[in-house]
Structures are given as C-alpha cells and as structure tokens.
Amino acid sequence: MIKVLITGGAGFIGSNLANTLVSKGYMVRVLDNLNPQIHGANPIETSPLFSSLSSQIEFIQASVTDRKKLIEAISGQDILVHFAAETGTGQSMYEIERYSNININGTALILDILTNTPHQVKKMVVASSRAIYGEGRYLSDSQGYVYPDHRSDAEMAQGNFEVTLPGTNAKLELVPTDEDSKIHPSSVYGITKQVQEQLVMTVCPAIGIAPVAFRYQNVYGPGQSLSNPYTGILSIFSTRMLQGKSINVFEDGLESRDFVYISDVVNATILGIENEAANGKVFNVGSGIPTTVIDVVRKLMRFYEVVVPVSITGNYRLGDIRHNYADLNRIQRFLGFTPEFSFDQGLEHFCKWVKAQSIQHDNYDLSLNEMKERGLFK
Fold first, then answer.
1. Has residue 91 got a pLDDT over 80?
2. pLDDT, tens digit, for every residue of 95-131?
3. Which of 5, 40, 204, 266 would you label with 308, given CA atoms 20 to 30 Å apart?
4. Which CATH superfamily is domain 85-373 in?
5. pLDDT of 306-319, one tens digit each?
6. Active-site pick, 99, 133, 138, 189
7. Is 26 a residue of the active site?
8. Rounded Cα gap, residues 330 and 336, in angstroms
9. Angle at CA of residue 228, ends 85 and 68, nearest 5°
C-alpha cells in the first residue's frame, strides 16, 4: 500500500485530496496546524474541514515549521504532497514575516530533512499558484506575446484598471497564460509560492526525488471556508448575500479570474501523483476560461435567488492582478487532464452546499480596514 503524507491536509484542497486517496486505497497521513483563520477558534471540535477527514487518515497537528514533527510525519512515507501555506494575497502584503516563514521556511525545512535524514520519499508534489505569474499573458499587435508590469497606484487611482505597455495606449488582447510565461508575482504571497516551487523543483532532482508542481488557479467548491475573509470571493460574496449585505465590487467589475472546481483540482493532482509523465514538470490547473467579477456576482444572486445592493466602487487593492487564466495544453498533453465542471455546474453545487450551512460571521469589512490602515486598499 502506497503511503502519502499531505502537509496542510486538513485544508480545503488537502482534505478533499486526502479523502479521495483513501477511497483509492492509499494510506494517508496528514500534518496540519489547524489555523484558526481557516478552521475557527476550536478546530478539533468545530472545524467542518477537519471533521470531514476520513477516520482512516492518521492526523498530526503541527506547524510545517516544526522540525521534530516533520521528521515524524515524513518517516515511512512514499509520496509527499506539500499544501501547507498561508494563502491570502491581500493579507500577505502586511503579514510579510508570517507568510515568508510558513511558505518559504517551511518548504526549506522539509527539503532540509529530505536531504539530510533517512527516508523513503520518492515523489514530492507541491502546490504552486497562478499568483506567481502576476499579470497574465497578452498579445500585442506590434510586439507579439507580452507580460505587462504590475499596475501602479497612480494609474488605478485615475480609474485606469486595464494593463498597458509603457509608451503605448494600444489595446492588448488577453490570452491564456502558459507555463513558459514570465514569472513576475505582484504580491508577497505570489513571491512565496514562486520560491516554494523553485525550491522543490531544484532540490528534489538533486536528491533522487521526482518533483511535480501544480499552479492552481482559483479553487472553489463545497467545503471551502466561509469564515475566512482573506481568500475566496465566492465565499465572501456568498456570506454577505445570505446576510442581505451589500456587495462592493472592486475596480470596474471587469477584472477576471479562472475558477476551477475542487473535484477537477483533486483529479489533476492525483494524475500527477500516479503518472511518471508528470515527474520534473510544472502544470497549470484551471478551467481555462476567464470569468469577470461582476458575472460572479450576478450568477451567485441567481443561484441564491436573492437580490442585494451591488456597488461598482472603483476601490482597488495594491497587489491584485487584473486578469489571468490558464493555458491547459501541457496538462492535457502529458496527463490527459480536462476539467469536467463548467463554472455554472460547479457554482450550482457550491451554492446548494452553502445554503445548507449556518450563516457565518462576516469579518470582511475588518479585513479591508486592516489593508486600508496600511495604505493597501484605496
């Protein structure tokens, strides 16, 4: 029986992957610190994600920065899936030390242990992110494929939200971002995910471990945290709508994201675990389709059958990107992965699940105030 360790395995993606692997006959061990921001104040007793873990899963509560617990967790494992990370793009811009410590130092510690202590790990899968790209890929009539720089505070303050190339006002055509696109993250979170990926892809081959990196787009679905105000606009908007609160749509509402359903993400990850064709490669995981934020709001109201006030305010957060959606050619070619769920199909499942949950306390305004106090939310 193949033994798999999942760091961060009580999180949204991790718990779904862990339970699916158990159903396929794997022996799964999870290491997770049960961060209250995700799991609530008393996670052992009240976290839906933690309680969803199969009774067949061995659980170790510890931080990914705890060397002793990591050595214990890695012992006897054949495959290591590294999901443990802090994940809020906006929050990362002011909790810089925490994000760097967990995401970068935690990954470095795992690799240090794999390099310097006996183990039987043969493959390591790391959760990377579309955030490492920063702004996505565009097509310019005069310059071909281009990768615009991060948008400036001065530009966005004037309501100029689309990306541009210096010295020209020519319109750029948004195209899917492939794995060979420029890496230039626009947030601390994106920087830490870039370093995570590069550490794994560099060190593992040197020590005889096959590395695989997945650059996940915006993952959603039943089970994701409804109380974490720092990640997941679907959860944030859902909570506010079901409380009858107004929705503040940033910028002009036309910024877009690639939303990928949790089952598709789990399936893609298992393909990477089980196929040698994945070894040594990085893959985008997304739907391959961009959806604007204002479309998200409209679809959510339709599925919830509610109408709440919606304001397109022109507010913006420094570190946010304008557009980015995944080119899936590589993962289709090497692993045969094609998403099964359209956004509407996935959203229907998500909204049905949300309506069956108790309404969560909304800390969204507090999270925005934290950014505003630091000059990051305008």
1. yes
2. 999 999 999 999 999 999 999 999 999 999 999 999 9
3. 40
4. NAD(P)-binding Rossmann-like Domain (3.40.50.720)
5. 999 999 999 998 88
6. 189
7. no
8. 9
9. 30
